[in-house]
Design goal:
The complex is a heterodimer of chains A (99) and B (457). With 99 residues, chain A is mainly beta. Chain A has a single domain, classed as Beta-grasp domain (Ubiquitin-like (UB roll), Roll). Chain A has one helix and eight strands; from the N terminus they run βββαβββββ. In chain A, the strands form three sheets. Chain A has a four-stranded mixed β-sheet, with no helix packed on it. The longest helix of chain A has 11 residues. Chain A is globular and about 45 Å long. By secondary structure, chain B is α/β, with parallel strands linked by helices. In chain B, strand 10, helix 15 and strand 11 form a beta-alpha-beta unit. The chains are: A mainly beta (99), B alpha/beta (457). The interface between A and B is large, with 26 and 47 residues. Chain A: It holds the Pfam family Urm1. Chain A: Belongs to the URM1 family.
Amino acid sequence: MQLTLEFGGGLELLCDSKKIHDVNIEQHNGEDKLIMKDLLSWVRNNLIKERPEMFMKGDTVRPGVLVLVNDCDWELSGQLNTSLEEKDVVVFISTLHGG
Amino acid sequence: MSASELLRELDSLKDAKTQIEHKISLLEAQLREINLRNDAAPPNGSSSLSYPTNGLTQDMIHRYSRHLMLPSFGVQGQANLLKSSILVVGAGGLGAPALLYLAASGVGRLGVIDHDVVELNNMHRQVIHTEAYVGKPKVKSAAAACHSINSTIQVVEHEEALQTSNALEILSKYDIIVDATDNAPTRYLISDCCVVLGKPLVSGAALGLEGQLTVYNYHGGPCYRCLFPTPPPRTACQSCAEGGVLGVVPGIIGCLQALEAIKVAASVGEPLSGRMLLLDALSGRIRIVKIRGRSMQCEVCGENATFTQQQFLEFDYEKFTQTPLRVPPLKLNLLPSESRISSKEYSEIILKKETHVLVDVRPAHHFKIVSLPKSLNIPLSTLEARLPEVSSALKKEEEDSGVASGSSAQLYVVCRRGNDSQRAVQYLHKMGFASAKDIVGGLESWAHNVDPNFPTY
């Protein structure tokens, strides 16, 4: 499944300072369904190069990270159970506090 | 005259100039008011016609004419704005443009709260302050600037830090709150206080080359805690002083905060509630995303929440976010004193030409700004991989100094403020470099205690 993943608010520093990643995720067991929970563990294993604790806590993102699926808060689409579709854009962004 | 005498003379002249300018603007405002009153009272013999102007004076109609001509803003929008009161928390990178535009637009009562003084390294982004105010309270500087743009509005100065003990009293005096602060505990404090008092909150943030903006607690929309019920780890909260920021980025977000506050105050348009604007300055992208609504489970604004003024007063925001409200620079103390030397001691080591290697563990882009002579830059994040370089540098020093010295080369570590250098020495000890020592307080201490001409940033 082709997805575009974007990291912002400093999270890009965890994946070689690259903000936009066009990825192709192979689904195992012939299942054609991919949910956010699967994507998170894929990201953790394949894109996060350092300090994984700055990205995840337990099986979800750490506090202070917003997850957007097609420009929409994942809270509105079922969080970890959000189903992903071909060409979806998923954004992980850390909240900023500076000013 | 000596340099110090000149500086004193300059300082006192600048003070006098500021006072005179303040006096001038006050007198000018008084004069305008008198003229206004005289205008209002028709001179003898002239017509005593009264013109329906929806409560706007002649002066107001002239000053705000470009607002009044906007069909979607108009007289009603301006009248609402003139009756409104807005508090801007923080007169820094976000607050600076927000305050300037809010003052110019004719917000009836504009409050500003900040406890800080203006510093030279603020000037690149906090465009409300001028060089004459370096060392003086930001609130005074900001208020003077607002006043000089628009002497007809009321500007209220709160020269103090916002805390639970004063927040309820201060925020309750305003219709709309603008969060232009720079740290997590204050952001939770402001949001909770706004919920308790039922005030809309225009929240902006900026760091590096990114910015974020949304309106909380507005017409049933979410509050800050609905979005972020659990505070992020302290290490995820960089400040502009630590991470750097391109000046214009908070400038853009601050302007957008003024815009949202004006929309809410004037009751026009659709304020950015339930949506968030994300600015990526480097790639030139702005995206506006839909965020969750008010959370029924929110501990502060949720359905069964019973967060009262009393609970707010007793809530420990520093403990909750594990971050101090006033963001003093972090001061670690990881090493025993025998593994540390002062910057003065290191300067003697240089003078005595003792055989040693100095490793600077700052990031490479920091090292490029300024560094100590003959220091070797190995950023902390790459230390593990580059340990052999440390070994070979030590060996080379020993060879170069000849057998005469007899002793081995010493290893010292420095960084900007003396935290990362301790982390590095801890790691070096673990890896067998038992004699490694760090320079207490880093390059800032060098500038402070050894060479005042060393540039700090």
